[in-house]
Design goal:
Distance between the termini: 75 Å
Radius of gyration: 33 Å
Shape: elongated
Largest sheet: none
Strand content: under 5%
Length: 345
């Protein structure tokens, strides 16, 4: 126990000594040692304390970058985003700039919230990523950025859908239909398009059912338009049986129905379990497909980075060999010159 305490005190004393040190190299090496050991909070504090000492020195951009990266690894994304923003405004041409741009975007992405909460950070992050992809269309992080954009777009789609669905649950069917139609007006590619078309049709049907007799005909005709719009776009759907029953009831109310009473008298709950089961299976399949696609893209990016890393390593080795050859040639030339000078004497 005593040995453990002494070890802890020793580590603490070493860290405090580095914090108080004014030797740039000692402090920098200590910060990198903590960073490589995964002690990112201590590394971040040391890099932060280094900033004032390295101002104007060649290593300034390295210190600033690793300060941000340490906070990022420590999962302090708010502080890290600020670090990377300042770094990019000060060192836009640094060798670390491209990575810093991506890490900053990732920090913004990790600050976004689930769909139930305010989506202002999501809109901000989306705009920043789109601007980044416009300026750097061939970035090695393009795949990561596209994945983030897709996740945020899906989240916004989910929020819009759930907000509109609230009116339906409250049985305010006129407001529900308007809200769902506005979703498709703003974004016709909403991932819940099939569900939205269903709720548009069911909202108009239920609104017609609850209307006074004088206005029912017009409103049932509105539902029939919505129904035909749905079946024209989605031929096979878990919602189809439920809509077919509603359509039969609307036709009977209009005096046009010629089918059996069995369909007209069917209850909505008859289809709810069947529909919900089918929707859950569809959602599970969609998520599995998205996960597989993301994993495939991730592996592809990993392979591309490995190739680039290997190419960079090869270039470094070739450069090193060239330097060694140049030094050897220079040494041989000097030796030859010295030998010639000795002979002449």
């Amino acid at each position: 126990m005593a040995l453990l305490l002494l070890g802890a005190v020793g580590c603490k004393s070493q860290y405090n000594a580095l914090q108080n040190s004014t030797d740039v190299n000692v402090k920098y090496n200590g910060a990198m040692k903590y960073f490589n050991a995964g002690k990112y909070k201590k590394a971040a504090d040391l890099f932060e304390s280094l900033v004032v000492y390295v101002s104007g020195l060649p290593m300034e951009d390295t210190v600033q970058y690793y300060w941000g990266l340490s906070n990022y690894k420590y999962k302090d994304f708010v502080t890290a985003e600020g670090n990377f923003s300042r770094f990019l405004s000060t060192f836009p041409q640094s060798p670390f700039a491209d990575k810093a741009r991506f890490y900053r975007l990732d920090c913004l992405f990790r600050q976004t919230d689930r769909y139930e909460l305010d989506q202002t950070p999501t809109y901000k992050c989306t705009a920043e990523i789109k601007q980044y992809l416009t300026e750097y269309p061939n970035s090695e992080y393009r795949g990561d950025c596209m994945a983030m954009l897709k996740e945020m777009a899906n989240r916004l789609d989910k929020k819009a859908f759930e907000n509109a669905k609230l009116y339906y649950r409250m049985e305010d069917y006129l407001a529900s239909r308007v809200a769902f139609k506005n979703i498709l007006k703003d974004n016709s590619d909403n991932i819940y398009r099939e569900d939205i078309l269903f709720y548009i049709a069911m909202s108009s049907f239920k609104y017609a059912q609850l209307s006074v007799p004088a206005k029912q005909k017009e409103r049932y005709l509105t539902f029939i338009d919505d129904y035909l719009n749905f079946v024209g776009e989605v031929s096979q759907s878990p919602y189809r049986k439920e809509l077919d029953v509603a359509y039969a009831k609307a036709q009977k109310a209009l005096g046009r129905y010629t089918g059996s009473d069995e369909l007209v008298n069917a209850k909505e709950k008859t289809f709810e379990r069947e529909r919900n089961t089918a929707l859950k299976l569809d959602e599970k399949a969609r998520k599995a497909e998205e996960k597989a696609a993301y994993q495939k893209e991730k592996e592809k990016r990993k392979a591309e980075r490995a190739v680039k890393k290997e190419a960079a390593k090869q270039l470094r080795q070739e450069a090193k060999q060239e330097r060694q050859a140049a030094k050897k040639a220079e040494a041989e030339a000097k030796a030859a010159e010295g030998s010639a000078s000795t002979k002449s004497n």
